From TrEMBL, chains A, B:
Alphabetical list of PANTHER family matching this protein: CYTOSINE DEAMINASE FAMILY MEMBER, TRNA(ADENINE(34)) DEAMINASE, CHLOROPLASTIC
Domain of life of the source: Bacteria
Cofactor: how and how many bound: Binds 1 zinc ion per subunit.
Name of the molecule in the record: tRNA-specific adenosine deaminase
Keywords, in A-Z order: Hydrolase, Metal-binding, tRNA processing, Zinc
GN (gene name): tadA
Amino acid sequence: MSLAFAEARAAASRGEVPVGAVVVGPGGTVLARAGNRTEELHDPSAHAEMLALREAVRVRGGQRLADCALYVTLEPCPMCAGAAVHFRIGRILFGAYDPKGGGVEHGPRLFARPGCLHRPETIGGLREREAQAMLRAFFGARRMS
Amino acid sequence: MSLAFAEARAAASRGEVPVGAVVVGPGGTVLARAGNRTEELHDPSAHAEMLALREAVRVRGGQRLADCALYVTLEPCPMCAGAAVHFRIGRILFGAYDPKGGGVEHGPRLFARPGCLHRPETIGGLREREAQAMLRAFFGARRMS
């Protein structure tokens, strides 16, 4: 989770919304790490989770990540939660809850829906205050400028 | 929609699930067209819609597609519907309904949820039988082989 926070801080320093994600394989191997790059790539889908999931599969050479965990500093949105299903990620551990934009514990709660094709184990609230504080500091600074 | 069907047929000929998508700008300009490439790219997120939305933004140079329409041969899944929100696509016109995997008229019905940040206009069932027949032929042939 510390690596995910480092990616989030690096994203903030690039002027991106500070969200970071890391995909960890069996035995704790870091397969991929990414920060949000929507501004830099001019791609609204370039969320940290999407970039890290794609990179992890590229590194591994397979398409599925059932034995891997995704660490991310913010609750994934419906797009990223939907992607996590397609990648068959085994576990998702996230920092801050996102009552407005989240898709795991809020909104559509994708994994809790009947008929969901894959249900990753999820744990929310990891280092929650730190994750919230980072997001608040970023948006606070933007409102001031 | 004919271009989306052509992309779906091209995807099938590559051994991909036959789904095709086209993003059309104001005045009917085709900004991007793509077929499903999850197998070729070893990327479970490489759905036709994701590829076409990203390409459309790249072609245009902006991040938003509010004055554009996405034509796609199958009802978008939750990942792609979530992406359509982030891209602020104006309209989505799709072919076959997807009761098991869809996220627009089925499952989480993302755009109908309270708090959804952007609600594209949606029209489903365009050339529905043709779209269904194409998918059935593909999966039927795979079961036989």
